[in-house]
C-alpha cells in the first residue's frame, strides 16, 4: 500500500455502505472513527446481529438519504470531545481514499449539529498515513454530484434487508420466502396479518403487532388469504401510508379478489376472457344465461378459491337448477361461457415485475373440468406463445401486481384470462418448471430498494 498524506479534512468513500463520497474530519485525538447516522435500528438473529441506519451525506440536505446496513461488531461506551459518554453501535466497513482501501471500525452516532458527516480517528489511520494538520483535502477530490447520478443505483452494494411476509400459514410458499431471503443475507419475518393493528393518524401512522410497534421494513410480501382480504388489505394500506415498498398493493389485491370487479377491469383493458354475465337477482334466469351463450355453462361463486364454488352445468336445465340454488343461498355468482376446446386444461403464468418468469400447464383430475392442483390436478412445464405471454403481462399490469399468477385458457380465438391471483402458490410451479421463482422475486425486491439518484435543486 502506498504512502498517503492526509490534511485535517479529506474526501473519503465507504463503498460497502453505498456512500461514494463523504467529507471526513481527521482527528488524531479521537481513538475511534464515527459516522453520522439517523434512525439506527438493529435486526437479525442474536447470533448474527445487523444494524440498519440512514445517512445524510451532504450537510443541510436531509432530502438526500442513503439507507445502509452492516453486520454489528460491538456496542461501546464512547466519550465525545465535550466529555459526554454515549453508548454506540460499532460496525466494520471498508474505507477508500485515493484509490487505496482498508478495513476500519466505525461507531454510529447522530452528528446533525456538526459540519463533517464523518470523523476519522487514530484506529483508521494506518502506519502508511502521515498527517499534515494545517492543510486540507490533500487526496483526490470527490463530489456530491454522485448522489444525483443515475449510476448510483446500479453501483450500490447489496445490503441486508428487513422483510416482512404477511401470512397466517406455514406452507411451502411462506417457507421458501424465508429460506431464500435468509440465504441472501436478509432478515425475513413472518407476520400473522390478523394480529396486526394500526395507529391511524396524520403525523406518525404505525403498525403494531403483539403489543409492540413493528419496525421499519424495506419490503412487505403479502400472502393474504381470501377469508381475510378486507382486513389484510387495510394492513397493507397502512404499510403503504408509511412508505414501505409492498410487492402487491392493497388496491390490486382487492380488485383481483373480487371476481366481478376483476372481470370488469380486464374488460376495460380489452384483455381476452370468457364471456361473463352477472346480476344481483334477475327475474328471468334464461335471460342471464342468454347473455353468455348456450350450455354448457360455468356458474361460479364470487368468493370461490382453488376451484371451490365452481360448477359446470352441462345443460340449460342443469344451469337453471344451479343458479336457483345459489340464489336460494343468497350467494353472489357469475355465469360464464365454457371454453370447450380447453379440455380441462389451463395455463398458469407466473408474472414477476412485468415479466413471465415461468409457465405450467395444469390438467384436471380424471372426470373433473377444474385444473386446480389443490383438487388433484397435475402440472407440467409448457412453452407459451408470444400472445399468451403478452396477455399474462397485461393482466398483471391491469391490477398493478408485482407478483401474480395469471390463469389462461387456450381458446379457438386466442388466450382467455380466467383469473389473476395476487397470492399465487409457489410450490406447484417451482416443482413443475424447476425454476427458482422465489429468487427472481428477491432480485426485484433488492433492485427496488436500492438508492435512487436525487434531483438537483433549482438555483
From TrEMBL:
One of its GO terms (molecular function) is metal ion binding. One of its GO terms (cellular component) is cytoplasm. Keywords: ATP-binding, Ligase, Magnesium, Manganese, Metal-binding, Nucleotide-binding, Protein biosynthesis, Ribonucleoprotein, Ribosomal protein. Residues 263-446 form the ATP-grasp domain. One of its GO terms (biological process) is SOS response. The keyword Cell membrane does not apply. Its cofactor is Mg(2+); Mn(2+). The keyword 4Fe-4S does not apply. It comes from the Bacteria. PANTHER family: RIBOSOMAL PROTEIN BS6--L-GLUTAMATE LIGASE, RIBOSOMAL PROTEIN S6 MODIFICATION PROTEIN. NCBIfam families: PRK10446.1, rimK_fam. In the C-terminal section; belongs to the RimK family. This is Probable alpha-L-glutamate ligase. It comes from Sulfitobacter aestuariivivens. The gene is rimK.
Amino acid at each position: 500500500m502506498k504512502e498517503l498524506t492526509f490534511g485535517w479534512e479529506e474526501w473519503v468513500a465507504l463503498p460497502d455502505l453505498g456512500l461514494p463520497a463523504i467529507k471526513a474530519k481527521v482527528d488524531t485525538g479521537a481513538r475511534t472513527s464515527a459516522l453520522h447516522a439517523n434512525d439506527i435500528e438493529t435486526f437479525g438473529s442474536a447470533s448474527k446481529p445487523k444494524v440498519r441506519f440512514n445517512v445524510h451525506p451532504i450537510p443541510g440536505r436531509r432530502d438526500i438519504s442513503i439507507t445502509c446496513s452492516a453486520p454489528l461488531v460491538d456496542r461501546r461506551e464512547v466519550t465525545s470531545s465535550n466529555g459526554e459518554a454515549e453508548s454506540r453501535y460499532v460496525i466494520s466497513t471498508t474505507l477508500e481514499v485515493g484509490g487505496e482501501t482498508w478495513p476500519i471500525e466505525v461507531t454510529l452516532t447522530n452528528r446533525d449539529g456538526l459540519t463533517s458527516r464523518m470523523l476519522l480517528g487514530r484506529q483508521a489511520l494506518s502506519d502508511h498515513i502521515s498527517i499534515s494538520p494545517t492543510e486540507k483535502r490533500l487526496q483526490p477530490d470527490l463530489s456530491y454530484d454522485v448522489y444525483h447520478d443515475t449510476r448510483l443505483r446500479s453501483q450500490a452494494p447489496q445490503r441486508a434487508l428487513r422483510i416482512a411476509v404477511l401470512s397466517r400459514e406455514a406452507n411451502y410458499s411462506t417457507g421458501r420466502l424465508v429460506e431464500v431471503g435468509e440465504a441472501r443475507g436478509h432478515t425475513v419475518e413472518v407476520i400473522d396479518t390478523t394480529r396486526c393493528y394500526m395507529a391511524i393518524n396524520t403525523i406518525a401512522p404505525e403498525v403494531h403487532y403483539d403489543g409492540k410497534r413493528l419496525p421499519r421494513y424495506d419490503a412487505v410480501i403479502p400472502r393474504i388469504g381470501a377469508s381475510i382480504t378486507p382486513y389484510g388489505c387495510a394492513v397493507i394500506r397502512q404499510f403503504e401510508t408509511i412508505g414501505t415498498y409492498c410487492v402487491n398493493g392493497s388496491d390490486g389485491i382487492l380488485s383481483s379478489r373480487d371476481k366481478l370487479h376483476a372481470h370488469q377491469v380486464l374488460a376495460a383493458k380489452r384483455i381476452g376472457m370468457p364471456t361473463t354475465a352477472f346480476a344481483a337477482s334477475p327475474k328471468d334466469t334464461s335471460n342471464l344465461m342468454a347473455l353468455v351463450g348456450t350450455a354448457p355453462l360455468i356458474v361460479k361463486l364470487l368468493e370461490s378459491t382453488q376451484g371451490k364454488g365452481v360448477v359446470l352445468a352441462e345443460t340449460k336445465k342443469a344451469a337453471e337448477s344451479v343458479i336457483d340454488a345459489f340464489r336460494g343461498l343468497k350467494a353472489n355468482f357469475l355465469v360464464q361461457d365454457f371454453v370447450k376446446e380447453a379440455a380441462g386444461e389451463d395455463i398458469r403464468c407466473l408474472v414477476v415485475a412485468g415479466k413471465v418468469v415461468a409457465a405450467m400447464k395444469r390438467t384436471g383430475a380424471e372426470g373433473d373440468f377444474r385444473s386446480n392442483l389443490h383438487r388433484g390436478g397435475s402440472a407440467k412445464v409448457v412453452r407459451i406463445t408470444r400472445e399468451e405471454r403478452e396477455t399474462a403481462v397485461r393482466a398483471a399490469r391491469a391490477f398493478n401486481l408485482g407478483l401474480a399468477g395469471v390463469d389462461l385458457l387456450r381458446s379457438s380465438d386466442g388466450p382467455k384470462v380466467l383469473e389473476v391471483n395476487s397470492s399465487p402458490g409457489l410450490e406447484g410451479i417451482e416443482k413443475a418448471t424447476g425454476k427458482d421463482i422465489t429468487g427472481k422475486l428477491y432480485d426485484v425486491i433488492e433492485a427496488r430498494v436500492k438508492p435512487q439518484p436525487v434531483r438537483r435543486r433549482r438555483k
